[in-house]
Specification:
The protein has four helices and ten strands; from the N terminus they run ββαβββαββαβββα. It has 177 residues and is of the alpha+beta class. The protein has two domains: 89 residues, Heterotetrameric sarcosine oxidase (Alpha-Beta Plaits, 2-Layer Sandwich); 73 residues, 2-Layer Sandwich (Gyrase A, domain 2), CATH 3.30.1360. The two termini are 22 Å apart.
Amino acid sequence: MSEPDIDTPRFVVVQIAAWRDGSTALRDRLRDAGWELPPFGAAWCDADRVACSVRPTRWLLISPAPPSVTTDPTLAERCETLLGEAAAVTDLSAARRTWRISDPDASRWLAAGCRLDLHPKAFPVGHAAVTLIAQVPVMVVRRATDWLLIAPSSMAEHFDAWLRSAKMSARTDIWTA
């Protein structure tokens, strides 16, 4: 069997929540900084970054982690400066772990432990949701060329083992795309 197409890149995960009547300012300021805020249940993706909304009036901004020896402001610090009184900013990076799955059959084998219908017609590119996979609360983002999964870091070892096991034991007769 081949090695799973599962990568565990380091990402920065920042949650932003608009203060009362701050949604418009939040959207405008982030758009000026090159981020788009998608509607609830959706994700905006560019080459490296993702913004998604899986809770009303809250978004996660996800970006590759910078080198550990940088003196540049963190994404959370940049958001705090940019958003000011428009939003609350919380850095969730230490509490979350990310997986990127580039296997074209991932929707089939992820479905083995997932409560969502991940068929491309039901969960197309640009969708985002939180669900349980292998009894772990996981944010799932379907991107054009891969899947981004984010789970609590306290459950990362279990979830990583489940992902790799599910991929290696995937049955090809569950359903076809």
